[in-house]
Amino acid sequence: MNRVAIIGGGVAGLSAAISLERRGVPSIIVEREEALGGLCGELGCKGVERCVRCDVCLARDMVAQARSSPLIERLGRAELRSVSGQPGDFRLAIRVGGQGHRLVRAAVIVCATGGEPFDAHLDKRLGYDELADVVTSLDLERQLSAEGRFLVPSTSAPPKKVAFILCVGSRDERFNTSYCSKACCKYSFKLAQGLRAIDPGCAITIFFMDWRLYDPRENVRAWASGDSGVRLVRSRPAEVLLGEDSRPEVRFASEKDAIVEVEAFDAVVLSVGLRPARSAAELARTLQVETDAHGFLRSPKGEPCASTRPGVFLAGTCRGPKEIVECVKDGAEAASKAIAFMGGVG
Amino acid sequence: MMRILAFCCERGPGEAIDLAGEKRMRYPADLTLIQVPCAGRVDVAHLLKAFREGADAVVLVGCLEGNCHHIYGNIEGRKKVDRAKQILDEVGLGGQRLEMFHVASNQPFRIAELAAEMASRVERLGPNPLAVKE
Amino acid sequence: MSDGGIGVFICSWGSGKDPKLDMDGLLSFASGIEGVALVKMIDRICSKPGQKEMIAAIKGSGTDRFVVVACSARTKRKLYRHIATSSGLHPLAFEVASVREQAAFVHEGPEAQRKAETLVRMAVEKVRLWVEPPFEEEMPALRNVAVLGDGLMAMAVANEIMAQGLTVDLVMSGGSPKGSPPYIFSNQDEMDRALRSMAEASSDPRMTTIKNASVLDFQGPPGDFGLVLDVAGEMVPLRCGAVVLAPEPRMELRTIDGSPAPSAQELIARGLRRIVILPSGASSGIGCSCMTPRGTLYALSLVDAAPGIEVSLMGREARAMDWMEGLQRLAQEKGIRFFRIDGEPKVEGHAPTVITWRDPLLGDMRLQADLLLLDTVLTPEVQSLAKAFDVPVDEKGELLSIDSRLRPGETVRKGVFAARFRVGNMLYEDMALEAGSVAARALEMLSMGTLEVGGAVAEVDQEKCSACLGCLRVCPYSAPMIGQAGKAEVRMELCQGCGACVALCPSRAIDIYCFSDSQIVAQSRAALGKVR
Amino acid sequence: MIIGEQKRLEEISGMLDGHRGILIAGCRSCVAICLAGGEKEVAVMAESLRLISSLRGKGWEIEEAMVERQCEKEWVAELRPRIEGKDCVLSLACGVGAQTVQAMYPRVRVLPGLNTSNMGAPEESGIFVEKCGGCGDCVLHLTGGICPIARCAKSLLNGPCGGSQGGKCEVSPDTPCAWEEIYHSLESLGRLDLLEEPIPPKSWLPARDGGPRRIVRKEAVLTEEQKRLKGGKA
Q1: Do B12 and A57 touch (CB under 8 A)?
Q2: By the CB < 8 Å criterion, does B84 face chain C?
Q3: Would you give the DSSP letter of residue A11?
Q4: What is the domain extent for residue B56?
């Protein structure tokens, strides 16, 4: 019984399951939450009439495909406890629904457990704790997902002036995250496009260090120069304080000359980066695979989606920060490697 | 009882309809949804015939532009809606009773929004005069 | 029309856990509809016993189409197709009324019941007019892929496909590619390992390499393409199940007069001490205007080899990815200078070349360089590929792949895939991932050995067609063509059932199976309560 | 092909006033191709007129029919059963079609649903452009295959008039200056010498000004003898 066990039902795990299903290989998805979709499933669409290509709806499409396929078994509220056996014939002990146990046999394991957004509370200076109107990009995404619009938390009125601060918790040695989280440039750009589409009256200012958009068609500068309501400021704000009119004030080094500028906004969005999941270390021990210097599960150089142990493959943000489309590609690649490992059945 | 007929692309909006169901998102029962393979499948004659059959308002629901599984089916759909609106204005029924909405597969709240928008239009414009004559 | 009558199967769970819908009421409503020959309540149709009971009922009743009144059609469509075929019917001979998601869960009491009845009525009216589509079960799919491209990306795609047991024809437009691969290798041995594995691949018996070839003709359905190649004047036919286009730009550090970047020894020999590296975008407007790590790696090689050399890099963005973050700090520690520029710097003179630009903070800057190097992009020859395979090209001159709706790597021509290179600092790993996922898409299509063709596709009524070419122009997949009879014909293996041609056809000569004009009109009348 | 455009609904409903039994007759050739009178447009027209009729109480009974080519007597003859009991036909064919139907059914009033515009070709999907003025005395061999009569607003035989801006005719920014295109065409043909010889004034007799034209191909005309032997049906 050559079946693939997929740990994690987010975009990467679903992509692996669907790619396997299209090639006739059965799989079982072990998902910790009740519903499939993972972190990407919680995010919201940022388009009104035009799609801004944030790819978030891929999660919804793939959940639908996975649920309609007889070859994909889905275990909700299920957690991997231990792995025994050897590559080609693993035995996975899984706790289902908090009480029962279930033993799953699989020839290959695809780990797609994903990463975790950076906890903005850790960066005290950006005022995420005290100021209600300082939100993370994830909070903004959840509101868009639920209602399709964003309201200022303290006044619950539509904002007229919003600031985005990029690289929160990324490229920052204080939190041992000296890497670029790769996806938050894209999603802040998309969120800004979304807010502009939803309410053209809402002006956007984006504080950035470097624009790292990996798809050449994403030209943030062309978009910003074509839209009077958007301002790009190359400066990494020092702190966000409560202004006298109880609106958050951003203090940042001016681009023009060596002075500190202070500007108030209705809301400040912290574009948080991605960190390894809290359970990553324990998962690495369970799967007997190595992690890299930052704590993500490690893929050997030049072999994407492989892990340091044969028969175990990695897909998605569990092996490093990436965009949604790349998670989908990871899933397809991990499925291909799994099939090659099982002797090329599909 | 109002009658709002919606032609829905089965990919994006079809998914949003099921999601709205799963999340128990109420919307007026006056909205009845017909699923078509793509918004580009519906043509002007279908939209006009619906009004003759007594619809108070007709809606074409397609995916967001740029996110159509069939490349530009939703743009084709919008062209048909624009033409039909022009005819409805000339005929005297008013193009306001016909509208195109864009709904992504993860925007279930949009179904309730478009139902409310069309219901308010029908209240403002009154029922379809052809239905009244019946 | 239906001769054996319509079966209506009501799933007891269709009304959701807290049953608000009166399923028995629906039962009697359905039995009252003209043309309904069998009505049956089944407990959980999706369960094994439920399916058996339904299959037996269909076989026993002689009905040739049925309606399922249950939960969302989306999650159960494949199950219902299985039930249809198991009872000897056509796999598409059914319609679903999603009374749970579209009535019970979203409306209250009597309204929900009335909506459920309308949904049942619509499904019956639609399936009544169902016509069996020409469903050629399975078309054979050749387990061989033609990969077109000269560089590493094409090799990587070929590698991935061979790893899955298929054969590959690698078609190269030239001999061996000029310039260096545009990818960033973390170190020299990774580059060597990559080139070595590519060399092994080319000797693999499952791959035949054809050099100096251009595509003359491309015909045939997906799964059984016929190519004709012009290989140095000789016509070579090639048959394959799928095509992967993998054009790859080359990147090179070049001097202004186009010669490749000199090595450290040459620089010392020619006494050139001050080197400046400009991104290609800055001077020629193509490619990107960022300080890519390629320049940094070259600068490091110079400084290590000849400490006296002074290297400066200029660009708008500092592009770097995980391990390359440290690369930049290491370069700065070794005295390599980075300057940020927004837009075009002015470049004048020769030996020394003077570069002037405006820095937002430091004001007007001047830099003298003994040698100016440009990080130039050699864009690949894409136009001829695009024309040969009828694949559109975007405004940046790259092959346009459909990225929407989960179809990365696919193009509008079914069976033709495109591995896209992303300008900037594509890591070797990014390329391997893109190659792997595009190869996976081709394998998903071919690996089952057969391709489903037909079903809900469009078909032309030749009598009514005025050959106005409207369908050819509107179809995104170029499925319609003008046949021998001088009338339009839809190639079923290319048609994906979107219906744009049906909506446009001025002579109403095209209709589509399972969503025909009459079915849509019947559903609208049923939805508006106009059916007797 | 012949290109036509639908009249506005207001004008059409004005024409239909006072009529009850209305047959809308479409045509499957030229006007279908230019999206003016094919079966789809006939259906849309029918729906629109039925809406008007119900809304404004006109009492029209509207039926739809298609003719393969409305300018052919034999095809139009097939309409006979559909025309019984109708008091008017709204023809969505070009002017030729409408006149053929009227000639064959003298007691049923035929109303033109289209404004027939010109002889032209689709520039791209949905855009139809005039290419030929039907002047009966073609000069394309002198103008690099571009007709100055139809495509120059002033039909100059020895243009250009000098009023064009950016290569577009002063009459309308969408219309390219025909003479500029003639120049470029002759240039690429390497026959700019043709421009040195002015085109002499044109006799407009073969054109519209000489009265309606009649073209006879004798070998295809049945002689009286043949007609008698065949039994009179033309």
Answers
A1: yes
A2: no
A3: H
A4: 4-127
